[in-house]
Amino acid sequence: MKTTIFSIILTLVTLFAAVGNHPTAAAESDTAERPNIILIFTDDQGYQDLGCFGSTTIKTPNLDRMAAEGTRLTSFYAQPVCGVSRAALMTGSYPIRIAEPRNVKQLHTVPHPQEITMAEVLGNAGYATALIGKWHLTAKKGGAPGGFDPATMPNSQGFDYFYGTPLFNGFTVYVDDTKFRSPIFRNEEVVVEGVESWDSITGDYTREALKWIEQNRDRPFFLYLAHNLPHVPVGASEQFKGKSEYGPYGDTIEEIDWSSGEIFKKLKELGIDEQTIVIFTSDNGPWVETTHAMQPGGRPFIPRDHSGSALPLRGWKMAAWDGGCRVPCIVRWPGQVPAGRSSDEILSTMDLLPTFAKLARAELPDWSIDGRDATDFLRGQTETSPRDEYLYYTGCLLTGVRSGQWKLVLPRSANPSGTGWWGRMIEAVPATSLYNLTDDPGETTDVSAENPEIVAALMKRIERARAELGDIDQTGSGARSFDPEPRRLQVPIRRPASPTPNPAPKNARIGYDEFKPLGDLRFTFEDGTLAAWEIVEGKLGRPVSSLPSLPRWATAPYNREGKHHLTTVEMADGFGDSQTAVVRSPRFTLSGDRASFLVSGGHVPNQLYVALVDAATGKPLLTAGGAGSPQMRRVVWDVEKFKDRPVYLEVVDRYDGPWGHLTFDDFSAEGKLVVE
């Protein structure tokens, strides 16, 4: 566990206070001022799967009562997949920002042991901490208990007590469909080698939770009750099995509702109900996959009564639509959080860390996080959430942004490269689109053509996110790293698929983004020549083009700055991806913090990319590429650490496969050319 100066000081203050005060009185005072915190976190529960969120077939009287006695948040966001979601929750950061061992961005995030978790923040402030349930933030290690690296397990990440599973409970409809069996740990010891049935798990976790609450009643505590269910394979005890109208999935939710009721009953029995804030939410949307990858006529997979519903939202777990990451959320704290209140303000799981820290008077990490303190908002002292945007990341792929009622969705291919196994659930989006989520929560009607100014404003948020957090093909300036290795994806970006013309409707064309130049150093090719640029490798037929589009993409013209751009696709007698070349800019130095340009075509690491290169060593400092599309995307680089260093740009095309070309335009930065 990481130790901070703050925690040492706090411990000394607490010890001195204990000498001069009656310990019981001191504990009672401490608890009254700083609430107990209970976070109930379900797995794969859909947005609609509570009575208070619209279900008519799943009975949840205890959670409905919780909503009546507290606040219901209807625009609450997690992340679209289990491990990534838990990483965001524990660190208060988008997973793309979080450091991971050896800088490998895993499909299920594994926070680096030096990351600081919610449990560490609260534990350092004197809270007792426990995780009962699913962890799913660990790395494997041969020879270690259960085969998991102890440095990435809960007891090393701030939890005094752990009882539960290191990963998920399974990935098939029934336990016997696979040889996989999950172990159960008690702290660092494996107490169950492999679970054969999940029917008793909710009851087991509930009993563990009630016992732990009673043991820690006289001090502030943080209980993270992370149910394995309703993730498949589902299970329910005899008391609930076969009782729900919805079927096996409904049985599971109804038992979790019972469990939540038992928690509230225990708080009242111990007289600490009014000193305890309880949050109920889910890690992501429901795992709806009736056939593999939801292909029509495909291999049957999860029966409909074994997974939930995200209605009225579009999509489900792993999807980039709201149904994948927008989840039910209820907050209850008698006398502190308004009862019977419902809010559609945007909030996220990342906001819980700074909120809990404020309530606990705890010290946050001394680095940037993405969470916002929502204390005043939750207490009803303001009706405005501290969060003014939510960024939609599919792993490391940025797919959109929401601000207020508006959601911008970026163009993407189906099953995007670099997203691994969850990419199978990602649908293609041919052009930038805009949705009014207040009027259209199902994301059915693109209104981008009618609202160009909103599209432009949201694109600026996208540009800032790419610069600070990054994207699947670039590392953000604010991404954390504790190891020397360069960042890489667990599943590398694959070779681009063959381009198939599927032009966007005319009213969805993307024009030039009217980007304000970042400085006087500019490369725009508007004289129709390479000017001071040179081809240093290979050969190009027509390196500077005035043509408005690729031949088969007339309805998706280049969204360049003027009438010319640099290209590697035009031959002397036509078009083709077979020619290869490297085109280099003149040398220059940078004096500003950012540089920007437009790029389209493909992107293949080490073969097809645009690079900022150190002129002294020839080493690429930053790289980016196209998105397998004819339309240019805006790249904004953070170049502050490269100021006053001689550098140059290279457009590198050593790839002759599909989308094996680049187009480049509208570079701007503060700087000056190096006089040779």
CATH superfamily of the largest domain: Alkaline Phosphatase, subunit A
Helix content: 10-25%
Mean pLDDT, nearest integer?
Answer: 91
Gyration radius, rounded: 27 Å
Shape category? elongated
In CATH, the topology of the largest domain is named Alkaline Phosphatase, subunit A
Number of domains: 2
Q: Which spans have pLDDT < 50 for at least 5 consecutive residues? A: 3-32, 497-509
Tell me which CATH architecture of the largest domain applies here: 3-Layer(aba) Sandwich
H/I helix tally: 11
Main sheet properties: 10 strands, mixed
- The strand count comes to 31
Fraction of residues in β-strands: 15-25%
Which class best fits the helix and strand makeup?
A: alpha+beta
Structure description:
With 676 residues, this protein is an alpha+beta fold. The chain has 2 domains: 38-383, Alkaline Phosphatase, subunit A (3-Layer(aba) Sandwich), CATH 3.40.720.10; 512-673, Sandwich (Jelly Rolls). It is built from 11 helices and 31 strands. A hairpin with a 5-residue loop joins strand 27 and strand 28. It is elongated, with a radius of gyration of 27 Å.
